[in-house]
Design a protein that fits this description.
Elements lengths: L1 H41 L35 H13 L12 H13 L10 H7 L27 H12 L13 H13 L10 H7 L42 E3 H4 L5 E3 L5 E3 H16 L5 E5 L4 H18 L5 H11 L13 E5 L9 H9 L5 E5 L4 H4 L4 E7 L2 H9 L4 H4 L5
Parallel strand pairs: 2-4
Antiparallel strand pairs: 1-3, 4-5, 5-7, 6-7
């Protein structure tokens, strides 16, 4: 009995020990889990370094001048789209960036060119594009519409309203003169061109309809220069008027041109440049005049210029502009062109295109003040010639006086102009 009872006690003790061991292991496990959870709760979650996303401008926008070098009306493609976007960023363009070079894009380019002293032709050439995409490109400065727009602006008007008018006409390519606020011949001519292109009465008066169109979004840049009908200088006809307001076409060429070097008597006149041409009727009148001068003892005449093609006049004009640019580096291109146009006619506006004008000089000396100049001033009218640009007519002709520049109009006209002291514009009623 005692032996069996001892065994029972022993077994019970073993069981109790096993239970205690199990409980101990379980409690330890719970404690470890608690510690892990506590440590996990206080251990910070590692920070994730965010990706830096760089937002750039439209990759289509170039940092340099795109190719091709010339963009103009009806051009299409990515280069036009880039151009439109750049103009839009600068405030010149408000249309769709669609890659279509239409009237809106052309107007914007013209405005940009005018503001930067470039030729305002609406063609985005190499020079225009270079400035457009450069750091020197200026944001658009709108032309203010006069707060109290007068009903009429015309010859003789002056002030801020006229200056605003000139600026707007310049932006559209119709005006290349000085923004001086004076409504003179140049302003009137620009208004007439604008009116003609927009289907208005081209009277050169900026009335309500003209001003409304000028300052509207429908105003278009100058596209073409109207070409007047050619008038032949024949007996009984009106003389052909050629000036800035009445230019000839680029392909204009007078009829019956003769080579003066071969046609003229070398004992009467020297032709400075071989190949110089003139209209036969005018050349005949010139020879009759110089024969009379020879009888009076006046000789040693020289013709230094006569007929010029449009291309010849373009070259001469461009050289004059470059001369002003070289001598005045701070001047804008527009200012240089305006200065050049006072002494050299714009292509199309030169009387030399007619073949009826001659520059008469004396070899080796200044013409003004010579015996030849004095004789010419007195007698040229009797042979159908006029002194085209006289000192007292500069405000009307738009050119400085040239005592050497004679123009054949026919005796029936020249003697009347002499007796009434009229220049050609006055004689034909083409003054402001």
């Amino acid at each position: 009995m005692r032996k069996n009872g001892g065994a029972s006690y022993l077994g019970l003790a073993v069981i109790i020990l096993l239970v205690i061991a199990i409980l101990y292991v379980g409690i330890s496990a719970l404690q470890d889990q608690h510690v892990y959870q506590r440590e996990a709760a206080i251990t910070p979650t590692p920070s994730i370094t965010p990706r830096t996303v760089r937002i750039t401008e439209d990759p289509a926008l170039p940092t340099s001048t795109p190719t091709p070098c010339i963009l103009q009306k009806n051009s299409i493609g990515i280069e036009v789209k880039q151009l439109q976007q750049r103009l839009k960023d600068l405030g010149y363009y408000s249309g769709d960036v669609d890659g279509q070079y239409g009237t809106g894009t052309q107007t914007a380019v013209t405005a940009f060119q005018a503001q930067h002293g470039l030729k305002a032709d609406g063609v985005a050439g190499e020079q225009t594009l270079a400035i457009l995409y450069s750091e020197s490109a200026q944001t658009f400065v709108p032309t203010p519409t006069p707060s109290a727009t007068p009903a009429v602006l015309s010859s003789g008007s002056s002030g801020d309203e006229v200056k605003a008018l000139q600026s707007r006409l310049q932006q559209l390519g119709f005006y290349s003169g000085v923004l001086d606020g004076d409504y003179g011949k140049g302003t009137r001519a620009a208004v007439k061109l604008f009116q003609a292109q927009h289907g208005l009465d081209d009277d050169g008066i900026a009335g309500q309809k003209t001003l409304e169109m000028l300052y509207s979004n429908d105003a278009q840049p100058m596209l073409v220069t109207p070409t007047p009908a050619a008038v032949q200088v024949l007996a009984g006809s009106q003389p052909l008027l050629v000036n800035r307001q009445h230019p000839v076409a680029s392909d204009f060429a007078p009829a019956d041109l003769v080579n003066l070097s071969e046609y003229c008597d070398s004992s009467l006149v020297k032709i400075k440049y071989d190949g110089t041409q003139g209209v036969r009727e005018a050349a005949d009148a010139l020879l009759r005049m110089l024969e009379a001068a020879k009888t009076d003892g006046i000789t040693n005449w020289q013709v230094s210029a006569a007929y010029r093609s449009y291309a010849d006049q373009q070259r001469i004009f461009d050289n004059k502009v470059k001369s002003f640019q070289n001598n005045n580096p701070d001047w804008s291109l527009s200012r240089c062109r305006s200065a050049a146009s006072v002494t050299v006619a714009d292509p199309g506006a030169s009387e030399h295109h007619t073949g009826l004008a001659f520059d008469i000089t004396v070899a080796g000396t200044t013409f003004k003040g010579t015996e030849q100049q004095k004789w010419l001033q007195k007698h040229c009218w009797d042979y159908g010639f006029i002194i085209r640009y006289q000192e007292d007519k500069e405000a009307i002709t738009g050119f400085l006086a040239e005592c050497w520049h004679i123009r054949y109009v026919g005796v029936q006209h020249s003697v009347v102009m002499r007796d009434r002291n009229l220049c050609l514009e006055e004689y034909l009623g083409e003054t402001d």
